[in-house]
# Entry
Amino acid sequence: MTDHTHADTLRTPIVAVLGHVDHGKTSLLDTIRGSAVSEGEAGAITQHIGATDIPLDTISGMAGELIDPSDFDLPGLLFIDTPGHHSFSTLRARGGALADIAVLVVDVNDGFQPQTEEAIDILRRTGTPFVVAANKADTTPGWNPQDGEPIQKSMEAQSERAKSMLDENLYEIIGQLSDAGFSADLYWRVQDFQKNIGVVPLSALTGEGVPDLLTVLMGLSQRFMKEEMAIDVTGPGEGTVLEVKDERGFGATVDTVVYDGVIRNGDTIVVGGQNEPIVTEIRALLRPRPLAEIRTEKEFEKVGEIGAAAGVKIAAPDLDQAMAGAPVRVVRDRTADQVIEEVKAELAEIEVETADNGVVVKADTLGSLEAMANALREAEVPILRAEVGDIAPRDIAVAETANQDEHKAILGFNVDLLKNAESDLENADVKLFKNEVIYQLVEDYERYVEEKQRAQQ
Ligand code: GDP
# Structure
């Protein structure tokens, strides 16, 4: 358990960006980073591995009259760089979500779409506070905002036609949020952002409304972190693996988001592995070099220690069996065995039920494997084997042993077919399905089964 001796230290909240494909998640993250950099101050942003840190000073510079930095105890906001509810729901910290708060991006013209609904379900299930970015407000005909004005003033300055079109779209979104069980309103009418979801009309393209969004995020985080997140930021480091990557000169490394405590070079760590927890000693903690130096120097610099919340690459022996989505824990103040038990207990929460017969499932992280398993259970598709990782020759051999034809199939979520498995697949009577959207993957497989059954009749 975390001791709360340092409860006054609020750590940087971890923010995820979710929403339907093409609604503007990537553009929003780019714009937040871009306008932070163009604030021009040194240290306007810090690039992390897998995340970007925007310090409070920069946010207040961007937000102008909207923010009084002395109102905040938070150091800033750490945005996870990979957008999408897939990465959000599969990144956990001690059973909960890795991200503390979320931005749900909704295209004002398009409203709620299937992945918006999925994201809402996940946010509800994990109890994650969120803000809605009603994106692409600039596409409203007649939209003519004043440069640098807060979005509320910009909206008042619109033509009557633009105003009523935008209003109609925004109230549609507010209505859809209400159907989903959330009370929501335009953000300037919201007093308590934990009780009511603030909707921020904005444009990721022009940047209008982005300072307003950051302001609302700061307000929401400040309260949430104070109430829920008394964290001992000096204790033994805890994190979640984003990705396992081979890095020249370092071998297998794990890109990790540290959500609690401190990780130091030389620390002994326990990392969740394919077969069992890995115990190893950190050889190097790596961060990207400052932006200006990239390309002229080596890509990474070594740091002595890193405190939550941060993204870092950990180089250590024996990490090749590490699993994306698995926990990383520093062994300090406890024995390695105690930490191993903790990691095992955490992994046991992510359970995938398998049967004697069924399909083979491969996914990129533990959390996505679990999400796949849930979706398949609902569709009543049994699973023979479920594993994290790319599709290897062994998976094809296993799928071939299925004794029903429709089960001779591999469902790969966000993974690749390894080069050395290509010819095996060609020669085997095994069907491969790959997709980056879970429900599409399941639908593709169900359609295939239906066709197969129809052909047999
Ligand atoms: P993602 O799939 O949610 O990450 O969406 P992207 O950020 O890739 O955006 C999808 C498309 O919408 C791209 O062509 C963007 O240029 C466009 N787009 C994103 N935000 C805006 C916006 O605020 N206004 C307009 N007009 N287009 C936008």
Notes: The longest helix spans residues 160-179. Residues 19, 21-27, 83, 135-136, 138-139, 203-205 surround guanosine-5'-diphosphate (CB under 6 Å).
